[in-house]
Specification:
The chain is mainly β. It has a single domain, classed as Alpha-Beta Plaits (2-Layer Sandwich). Helices cover 9% and strands 27% of the residues. It has a five-stranded antiparallel β-sheet, with no helix packed on it. A hairpin with a 2-residue loop joins strand 4 and strand 5. The longest helix has 6 residues, at 111-116.
């Protein structure tokens, strides 16, 4: 992941964190651009795609672009200065549990209205 300095920096990135790699075909600078997104922040950078930004031993965005359709999860493995090394994890997806503060029925009607029907 490169370009972090244009978003939130890399200080918050830690090994084991899950990121989302999303193709960005409308990117005016690179037709093989892959945006890196982290919930709840949003875009945190891009997969490196230049000989000057791809760390030695890593694959560029162009090399991994055809390995997934639109989106794939990845796991941060290393963070060095303002760059993160991410491992693609195609079988991994994030699940979020939302806790509500009131008793909510999963229906288009409020619970009180259900009792009147």
């Amino acid at each position: 992941v490169t370009g972090t300095q244009h978003y939130y920096g890399a200080a918050f990135l830690k090994p084991g964190q899950v990121v989302h790699l999303i193709k960005d075909p409308d990117n005016p600078h690179d037709h093989e651009a892959i945006m890196v997104d982290m919930i709840p922040l949003g875009k945190i950078g891009y997969v490196a795609n230049s000989p000057h930004t791809v760390p030695k031993g890593c694959r560029s965005a162009g090399r991994i672009y055809d390995r997934f359709e639109h989106h794939v999860c990845g796991m941060v493995r290393f963070v060095v200065k303002d760059t993160a090394i991410v491992e693609l994890t195609p079988g991994l997806e994030e699940v979020y549990i939302i806790k509500t503060t009131e008793n909510v029925a999963f229906s288009p009607y409020r619970q009180e209205e259900l009792g009147k029907a």
